[in-house]
Amino acid sequence: MYSEWRSLQLIIQSDRGHMSVLHSYPSNVGKDVANAVVRPLGQGLNSSSATSNESILKTDKEVKWTMEVLCYGLTLPLDGETVKLCVDVYTDWIMALVARRDSIPQPIVKEPNLYVQTILKHLQNLFVPRPDYAHNQISLCMRVLVAVQKLARESVNMSRETWEVLLLFLLQINDTLLAAPTVPGGLAENLADKLIGVLFEVWFLACTRCFPTPPYWKTAREMLANWRHHPAVVEQWSKVICALTSRLLRFTYGPSFPPFKVPDEDAILIPAEMDNDCVAQTWFRVLHMLSNPVDLSNPAIISTTPKFQEQLLSVSGMAQEMMQHPCLKQLPQIFFRAMRGVSCLVDAFLGISRPRSDSAPPTPVNRLNMPQASSTMNTTPPHSRRMRSVTVTKATVKTSSGSTAHPPKVTHQTSTTSPLSSPNQTSSEPRPLPAPTRPKVNSVLNLFGQWLFDAGLVHCRLHNGMNRDGSMTASFIQILLSYKSCITTPAGLDVRRKPSQISTENMVANPLFDANEFPDNYEAGRAEACGTLCRIFCSKKTGEEILPVYLSRFYMVLIQGLQINDYICRPVLASIILNSPALFCSDLKGIDVLVPYFISALETILPDRELSKFKAYVNPTELRRASIHILLSMLPLPHHFGTVKAEVLLEGKFSSEDSSLHDKPVTFLSLKLRLVNVLIGALQTETDPNNTQMILGAMLNIVQDSALLEAIGSQTELSVGDSTHISFKSHSRNSSGISMTSTGSSEATTPDSERPAQALLRDYALHTDTASGLLIRSIHLVTQRLNSQWRQDMSISLAALELLSGLAKVKVSVDSTDRKRAVSSVCSYIVHQCSRPAPFHSRDLHSMIVAAFQCLCVWLTEHPDMLNEKDCLIEVLEIVELGISGSKSKTSDQEVRHKGDKEPNPASMRVKDAAEATLTCIMQLLGAFPSPSGPASPCSLLNEETLIKYSRLTSTSKNHFRYFVLDNSIILAMLEQPLGNDQNPCPSVTVLIRGMSGRHAWTMQLYHQPRGSRASQKAFVPEPHPPPKDDVGIKYNVKHRPFPEEVDKIPFVKADLSIPDLHEIVTDQLEVQHEKLKKLMAKQILYENTLEKISEERLSKTLFPDPVTECIPPPPAQEFQTARLLLSHFGFLSLEALKEPGNSCRPPNLIALDSTLAGFFDDIGYLDLLPTRPFETVFIFYMKPGQKTSQEILKNVESSSNVQSHFLEFLLSLGWPVDVGKHPGWTGHVSTSWLINACNGSEGKEQEEMVAPDDTGGGIFNGEKKALYYADALTEIAFVVPSFMESSTDSSESGLTSQEAETQMDLLPSLLKQTPLTLELFPNHSENLSNSQRLSPTQKSKRLPLGRTVPPLGPETKVIVVWVERFDDIENFPLNDLLPEINTGVETTTNSSTSLRTTTSDKDVPVIFIHPLKTGLFRIKVQGVTGKFSMVIPLVDGMVVSRRALGFLVRQTIINICRRKRLESDSYNPPHVKRKQKIVDIVHKYRNKLLEPEFYTSLFQEVGPKSLNP
How confident is the model at residue 1440, as a pLDDT? Predict the structure, then answer.
């Protein structure tokens, strides 16, 4: 920079301005003169009277002669007051440039600049070290420095010559004291901080008022290089360059750029009046004033300065002895502080230094802990005493674990070994992203690259013994293209590089700096440089190009820092890992060749539970978190690149040993097992909840990706931008390239230091090679820990249950015992949580139980055949019983408590509701989903209107139905007329069953024989009687007696004789009557005999069979009271069923409803509108580079030319297209959801009317005519792609006024009564609106009237998915502007009576950002998921996923987000609970108050319009 300018050092050295005439006389002469002359001057200054304070020197000659004496007096010993008086006089006189004083001689007042220049030269004598009275000299020097400081600050009359003399004076005194080797406790050590501080402050003042010429900058740079062995020099340089950078960024990048905050005491060093151009010029010159800071890592350079050489010659020592000087032991700390300063500057330019949200002392990002000072240091250096204020220069950054940018670093501490971050720093705080307007990577590296690359390779032995030097930059590309480095061997051995050692060619062996100790001393500075480089490259913008030379040098630094053989440089390794979470997400060209090295590093860190060797440098939790982030970004690579080989080409080998096993590169596919083993090892050793959840999310990612890959066969996904077709071969266990030998550290002598990954490889290599093996292994791991370590932690439990739910949906065939293991573990988990003591029962605990029941439902619906096994069925039903009643009936083999004997005592109503939902799932859904209506509706699509239409009735009134309620939970609508398509004249009844699980339609017929046997039988025809045969047998004429003959043989008793005979009492009158009676009897006998004879004659003449008397079967009955029959057959018509239970508020088991009451069918329609499954809404946006407004984003999806092809593929992987007008499920808005007209029920299987990618960019799925839909047995999701509509931009003009809304609310009851009942909320109301009014999202929210009949569907659960082409645009996503476009209509159905619409905050809406990488993979960022359920799996921040698994993982994450949101909501009730509450309400309002006789009578009466009362 200053090569063509001469340095002023020779001028300074040859200047004799500090010499006096008295130096030519003997010392005693000068001393006596000085003592005699200075005393009256000093007394005059110290006098309080105005007259005596006036200067005794009047002429120019007197002043000059006196100054010669004062000059000599400053060189005298400090045993008297002469030197002090000289300082008093001079510090008083130099103030002539500031203000006039009486004590200042008039000649000086008249020519202040000339005299001040001379005085400054004389004052140099004071700073010459003296052997005695060091304390006095320190105080005097401080006085002079303060005076000079004041002079520079306040003087307005200083000429350029005076400024130049002042700068040279400060350079000279600094060089006098600081250039020599430091003496402990000496003058230099005590004054260093003040000396260099005053120098920089005065220098900046000079830059503002009289900018120094290049020779002065060159001189300052040369002299400063001689002082760098003082910690204060680097410390002060770091402070002032940070303060300058803060000012520079303010005007260079504008107010929108994140401010770089520095402490006030540092900021004031830069004069406020310094203009922007001056700041820029000064900043660049001061930046390079320290020369190359990497020189601080080389004692040989520092010890070759002139003053060091002078001391060496004066003691006649050797050069080696000079390198052993004690002051050089501070070089590691000085080197670290210099690199820390450079790191702060880099972060400031990247814009990642942002203020913390709290008032705690800020914490630098991603900092490593400073190693402790050497034990040989006797005093605390000044830079350590001022460390706190300097640390704050960079400490403006939020740190946390939730983002992909940078994990938090550890605060720089010198007094303790604690590596923890700020005490109040929480892992949920988002990490700052680099500023969108930050400079390019090349620009930053042009400034700092040479220093950082050199510092990152300090004391690393590279190839062929060549040490790190500055010439590597130009030749590194050629180096990379020369030779191969070994990564794996044919025998499966993982042969890696030898440890980096300091070059013996450039070092002389000595007892103080051993070759193995030397790198340890400087590893903190090297680690800082490596971490800074990682942050620079992670800040690469999308599409930004980086020079290959920078990439290659960076990869060399990483390869050296990630080595794990023999010697592990833990600070460097930790720094790289901490600062590289986004390294594999940044589209760095060629970064994937480093995957094997990173895997080796992760194998060292993640399976190690304690990380005791790293605790001195970094917070182990943060280190593990950063490692997991890197692991998440590498997991898809083996499947994605397949058999592509990862090679690193180097000139020569890292190992000096000759090995023939280094020519075979490793394939990505062979790394899969190592990655999986690291993942499993991390899960087994992880204790932090957030880290554990990230690992659980990664497990579902790798399992699903493996399953999908096996399902589609051995085909490699073609990466974007790469036309190379690669054959993807499935790997076997024998060719997986696994390292079976320990590649751990050299500390393998201790039992606990065996590399954990080695044991993992032995244990799991045969189990995780396939998707099914990986699935089984995952189930075993998660279930075992769910019921041991994790069951007390809510966040991990929820994540583990979500992982199990996701694993249940993976389409891989596994043995039934493994599936039963998952179900059994969830059951055991529920049992344990329910059995915890009462004090532990809380809402969080019950949320965990509810989540476990939901997980159980997922497993049962995905694998319904599990309940075919008796033991599994019993276990599940016992858990359901436990949830509903609070205890199991069977507590042991002998004791059984029946349901009626137990007192219901569930853990909570939420647990009971979840158990009831599980029971409903078992009874209603297992084996019955999808229903005949399709997956869009688990209910029947029939209602009263539809059934009446197809019946034989002429009337279409709904009053033909009989309504009953069973067990206060099921409403039966019974139609006794057979449907028109039924030809069999048998008892038929059509029943609409409305229960907690939905609406179902059944037609039942009464047959006394099975249907199968009936089909082959003919109609029943009775056989005729055979003809009678009267002539067969013997006919007897028997005279019948009234009594048996034995009666006559019984002798009479007196009682018998008490009744007289007839003849004894007959009189004449009676005789006449008696005879008359005899005649009548004779006639009757004759008549009867005659009739009998006539009858016999007629019978003998009659043919057989007699058509008059023959029995003929009646015709089949056509009319049945089938409702009565059905209820009777099921036992509901007993007297007990109609009686209300005693001592209970529950109604009877059977209740009749009066459908004639007003509002009955409105409430039935209200019940039908209540969904039977949770419904979610997902809004998908596409964001092109640089877009910031909502209109630009909404217009992107109008044409396929505006979007990437993968976006359309992603849309169709989320769900299937449905027609909004015919769709019976959720469509994304309540006005068009749950329709039942004209639905064919087959939308789930056939994707009809598929839209070609050329026709649309996805905007057709905006919810107007089509939407994307997904449903399973437990949830349904609508995916809406909002598009730009003119009507949505002006909602106020076309929206409803408040008066119109009130009018439509009044019309609501009549609307519902007069129209056919459908599952649409307001059919006629929506049909009468124009298309623009009906379909505009903004219109929907305003046209929906409010009223009691609108079901409360909240709390609302909706998620936003954003496809962002440029990752940096995430911060510009206009979420607030797009909130009106994500209206679902649910906002208006809340029970709030104060407003028409509930406001949605942008913080309440979770957003999933998807960024496509050039490799064909996708980077994920999740934001907006807040609360105690902050982290939801499987997608977590920083994850990278493949095309295959993207749709599944996004959908599963959405389901889990919405489930957690419902868990957290206090107002949420499950669908079956809402329906049950409505049924109870209907029973209460419309119960038919009939007495039992009246009820039985009504069953025999017809229903319908004729039977209605007029």
Answer: 93
Give the distance between the most distant pair of CA atoms in the chain. Answer: 206
Residues 787 and 829: beta-carbon distance below 8 Å:
yes
Are 488 and 558 a contacting pair, CB within 8 Å?
A: no
State the Cα–Cα distance between residues 1127 and 988, nearest whole angstrom: 13
HEC readout, 948-1009? HHCECCCCCCHHHEEEEEECCCEEEEEECCCECCCCCCCCEEEEEEEECCEEEEEEEECCCC
* Model confidence at 1076: pLDDT above 80: yes
- Residue showing tokens 């609108």: 1350
d(CA 640, CA 595): 13
What letter would DSSP give residue 610? S
User: Residue length, the chain?
Assistant: 1510
- What is the C-alpha separation between 736 and 679, in angstroms, rounded? 17
Helix (H) / strand (E) element for 626: namely helix 620-634
Structure tokens given for 1112: 């003929």
The top-scoring range by mean pLDDT among 4-13, 645-654, 1474-1483 is 1474-1483
Say which residues have a Cβ less than 8 Å from residue 845's Cβ, sequence separation at least 6.
794, 833, 836
Whole-number Å distance between alpha carbons of 1127 and 601: 73
Give the pairing type, strands 1175-1183 and 1276-1280.
Answer: parallel
**Beta bridge partner(s), residue 1362:** 1181, 1409
Q: How far apart are CA 1285 and CA 1265, in angstroms?
A: 14
Strand partners, 975: 961, 990
- Nearest-angstrom CA–CA distance, 1488 and 1501: 15
Decide: 1354 and 1390 in contact? Cβ < 8 Å.
yes
Higher pLDDT, 1253 or 1042: 1042
Q: Which amino acid appears at position 990 of this protein?
A: T
Q: What is the mean pLDDT of residues 2-19?
A: 70
Residue 540 near residue 587 (C-beta atoms within 8 A): yes
- Minimal CA–CA distance to 191: which of 151, 146, 224, 239? 146
Percentage, residues of the chain above pLDDT 70: 73
Which residues lie closer than 8 Å to 1168 by C-beta, 6 or more apart?
Answer: 943, 994, 999, 1317, 1319
> Looking at the predicted structure, is the pLDDT value of residue 750 above 70?
no
Confidence grade of residue 1090 (pLDDT, cut at 50, 70, 90):
very high
pLDDT at 949 over 90: no
Q: How many CB atoms lie within 10 A of CB 1059?
A: 8
Average pLDDT of the residues in 1473-1494? 87
Q: Assess contact for 1245 and 1232: CB atoms under 8 A.
A: no
CA 337 – CA 1333 distance, rounded (Å) = 66
| Residue with tokens 């997400």, as numbered in its chain | 585
Higher pLDDT, 57 or 1423: 1423
The Cα–Cα gap between 423 and 427 comes to 11
Predicted local distance difference test score (pLDDT) of residue 1279 = 93
Lowest mean pLDDT among 281-285, 1139-1143, 1317-1321: 1317-1321
Q: What pTM, to 2 d.p., does this model score?
A: 0.78
Residue type, 470: G
How many beta carbons lie within 10 A of that of residue 1038, not counting itself? 6
DSSP tag of 934: B
* Angle (nearest 5°) at CA 498 between 497 and 504: 135
CB atoms within 10 A of CB 284: 14
Query: In this structure, what is the dihedral angle of CA atoms 171, 172, 175, 178, given to the nearest 10 degrees?
Result: -90
Token code pair at residue 596: 């094997």
CB 882 within 8 A of CB 852: no
Q: How far apart are CA 804 and CA 791, in angstroms?
A: 14
Among 451, 469, 590, 573, which residue's Cα sits nearest to residue 524? 573
Distance, in Å, from the CA atom of 1150 to the CA atom of 1483, rounded to the nearest integer, reads: 11
d(CA 1386, CA 471): 67
For residue 374, pLDDT over 90 is answered with no
Number of neighbouring beta carbons within 10 Å of residue 311: 16
